[in-house]
Specification:
The structure is a single chain. Helices cover 52% and strands 8% of the residues. With 318 residues, the chain is mostly helical. It folds into 3 domains: 35 residues, no CATH class; 95 residues, Cyclin-like (Cyclin A, domain 1), CATH 1.10.472; 113 residues, Cyclin A, domain 1 (Orthogonal Bundle). The strands form 3 sheets. A 3-stranded antiparallel sheet has the order 1-2-3. The N terminus is likely disordered.
Length: 318
């Protein structure tokens, strides 16, 4: 599948703004920053409407997958019982292996990336970025025979580049590693950083705020406290807005080595303590997955010294 040169030349990168693009297996890739921008979708299969004899009358039946077997190319094979037999399944498996040839290792990694992207509901942009990094790194990857560490690292890198509130442990739940292989993750990260010439990106604390707030909206205990204090559902929007303003100007030097998800949870708890006080440490811990002790330590060590900033934001909000 190839792209028309006209569509590639007229495309502008959304990350760096460069117009220098190239086509790679149906993908538009920015030659300046390497971001996968767009992809071309195969046109749908069309069939004539029954009862109409004009050749110009067609209806779209959607994108169909063509499976090449000994019987030729078949459309809609999933609906036919003949392709569900063990002989047909084995024939298709053998044919796929013949078509893969030396690309079997690459396609297996892309299959894992698609599986993780589907289960974590990643965007197409993030999935394509991970696939592009995997395709670039795989020919030079000789740290370990198993490519699972490479797949996990490129997925984590793509997730952090797009600031998606998903941690590496959630990826490891889908693609589990043996305990002896987990030490290879750090070596793989250093390999990627050295090859690309970049530093490993970190999550910003404010990217975890919408996820925590949306969970708190559904907590019955929080809603009960909010009703007792005559609060409205718009309170959560105000809480999210003030917490985001509080965390955005902060740099990594301000919060040190604190985990960004725990920092976001403690910031929400600190802002709420100046408002209606409807949140408890237990409810915040349940919504964010952070330990209550960590939230308490962050609140006492960090946010008590920054109480003047919270009060200033509240005055500006009013």
């Amino acid at each position: 599948m190839t792209l028309h040169s006209k569509s590639v030349e007229s495309f502008k990168c959304s990350v760096c703004g460069s117009t220098a693009n190239t086509s790679l297996d149906g993908f538009i890739v920015c030659t300046n920053c390497g971001t996968c921008q767009d992809r071309q979708i195969v046109q749908g299969t069309y069939t004539a409407i029954e009862g109409l004899y004009s050749g110009s009358q067609f209806v779209d039946v959607g994108n169909k997958m063509h499976v090449v077997t000994a019987n030729g190319s078949e459309i809609g094979y999933k609906r036919q019982s003949v392709f569900k037999t063990s002989k047909a399944v084995r024939l298709k498996r053998v044919h796929d292996r013949m078509m893969m040839r030396i690309e079997e290792r690459l396609l297996r990694g892309l299959k894992w990336i698609n599986m993780v992207a589907a289960q974590l509901q990643l965007s197409v942009q993030t999935r394509d970025r991970a696939a592009y990094l995997h395709r670039t790194m795989l020919p030079h990857y000789n740290i370990h025979k198993d490519q699972k560490p490479l797949v996990i690292c490129v997925l984590t890198l793509a997730i952090r580049e797009h600031q998606i509130p998903i941690k590496e442990s959630q990826v490891l739940e889908i693609i589990p590693l043996l305990s002896k292989n987990k030490s290879i993750l750090n070596r793989t990260k250093f390999f990627i950083m050295e090859y690309l010439g970049i530093s490993w990106p970190s999550h910003r604390p404010e990217c975890f705020i919408p996820q925590i707030i949306s969970t708190l909206r559904k907590d019955p205990n929080v809603l009960r406290y909010l009703e007792r204090r005559n609060g409205t559902p718009e309170y959560f929007s105000r809480l999210e807005r003030i917490t985001t303003k509080l965390l955005q100007p902060m740099t990594s030097l301000d919060y040190g080595s604190r985990a960004p998800d725990i920092l976001a949870a403690s910031a929400i708890y600190a802002v709420d303590s100046f408002l209606l006080k409807v949140l408890t440490q237990r409810s915040i811990s349940k919504a964010s997955g952070a330990v209550e002790f960590a939230i308490r330590i962050h609140h006492s060590q960090l946010w008590k010294s920054k109480a003047h900033l919270v009060k200033k934001l509240l005055e500006e909000e009013e």
